[in-house]
Structure formats: structure tokens, C-alpha cells
# Entry
Amino acid sequence: MTEGNFVDYVKIYVKSGNGGKGSTHFHREKYITKGGPDGGDGGRGGHIIIRGDKTLWTLIKFRYKRHFKADHGGHGSKSRSTGADGTDLIIPVPLGTIIHDNKTGEQIAEITSESDVIVVPGGIGGRGNWHFKSSTNQAPRYAQPGKEGTDRDITLELKVLADVGLVGFPNAGKSSLLATLTSAKPKIADYPFTTLKPNLGIVENYNYTSFVMADIPGIIEGAAEGKGLGHYFLRHIERNSVLLYIIPADADDILKQFTILKSELTRYSPELLDKNFMIGISKSDILDKELYTAIEDECKVAFDQTPFVLFSSVSQQGLLVLKDKLWQLLKD
# Structure
């Protein structure tokens, strides 16, 4: 899916380089009329390598370039000289990218650090004729051709990596919270699905510590079946260490909203329930003292042992407590 410059799902074609040919050269030198075979080996073809790059956050560049080919290996030459290896083609991608083989559907790799993954190895170079000399064949006129490179159609799928993922209905206040706690500038408006792409921000904490928070497109009832932004939203939630359910203080039924949100996550992937989570009741600035106390008492009963915080991104009420509790969950 794409929105603006955010691209998180692309299909590309990759092909590694061919191995170089082995040489059938024979040694020639003054006063040596019948030198033996000395043909060198061909060089290896270039690999296709995918490398994690933490400075990237989207697959936008693949919108314009979908075919990638590595260089071929050099041919062997005289004096047993090996041909040069083909230059590897390195394709940088954001952390959180999953690579799938389009033909088999298998997951090739998951890029979670700044490391390299060879997705298509280069062809092996052919052996030169000196390898084939024997007592019965003193002058072999044969050398191996290099092996051809391999091609592959693959899919790159980006799932946002973050410490804390914000889960909530549209207009719950997720974007406002991210904008208040971080330097991120998500789009904020009072209509559904303001957020159409994940937004990331770094929350500064005490003693130079920090954590990454992700504002992800709002969920709706039926998202597990693909309604609204459906799986687009849910697949990004998989990569968050801690989930913060955001429910506005003016919701008709706070517990019901939480139950629906939790149900959608469970139907999509039961493993999501294994994540640590807490509940944030947003927009507390609209409450008078009496109503604030009533909602607080209601949450104590409804959520039992689950940590919760009433907060306001506008007045910044409760934000320090919210950060402290999130940090404790992350440490746990």
C-alpha cells in the first residue's frame, strides 16, 4: 500500500551475475615450446544482497525501479590468473522489511538489523584447464564455463518496528499523543482515517533513555476481515514490543471499545495477546473533576490489574505518568 511517500509493499525482480569462464590457455615462454596448461578460473558472479539501513523508513525507491541485476564474473586468463569476481549488488531496505519468494511463498529473511542477506548468490566461476591435466591428458583443451546467475521474483514487505504501538479507533487521539511526546508531525484532523500511513517518533525519557512510538492507521470493527484499512493496520502492530490502547474519554462505552479492539487483534493473530499492553484514556481535559473521578473508578473495576492512565495531549495532564508506565512495561 502507498500513501504519499510511504510505500510498504513491493514486488521486484532480482538476478545475480554469471560466473566467468575458465581459460584454456597454455604456458608459452621463450625456449619453452610445449608449456603445460595454465588457464585460470573464472570469477564468481555478483551476489544480490539486501542490507538493513536504519536511515530508511519506506520502500519508496522501488516504486520507480523494480529490476536489479548484479555484474558477471570475469573470465580466467593465463598463468592461472583467476577472473575478477562480479560486483555484488547491494539493495538497502528499512529495518522491519520481510522478504518473500513470490513463487514458493516462503519467507527468505527478515531484516531487523543493519546486516546483509544474500537473497540470490552469484554463479560460480568455471575452472581453468590446468585443473584437468592428468597423466593421460597432458594438454587438456577443456575448461568449464561459468555457472549462470539465478533470477528470482521477490516481495518486500515493510512492517514498522517500534517499542510502543498505538492501538485505537480513528480519532482516538493517537496522532495528537505522538505529536506531543515526540518531534513527529503526523496529520491531525477530526475525520476518520486521518492517519493513512505509520508515523514514528522518539520519546525522550529520563537519564538519556528513549523509546520509539508508532502511530498506526486507526482500527475499526471488522478489520481482521479486511474492513477499513484492515490487514494494512494489523500487520504493522505485529512488530511493536508494547501496545498502548487509546480510548477517548468521551467514548460511549470505554470497556466495549477496548473489548472490540482486543477482539480484532486476537482474530488477526492470537499471538498479539502475548504482548505487554496498557490503556490510555485520552482527552481527559474535557472532563470536569466529578466525571474524571467517575471514569477513573470505572476503569479500576473494568481493567482490574491492567495498567491505565487518563491523559490529555492538549493540557499534557498525565503524560509523565504515561511515559513512566510505558517505560516500565518495556523494561519488563
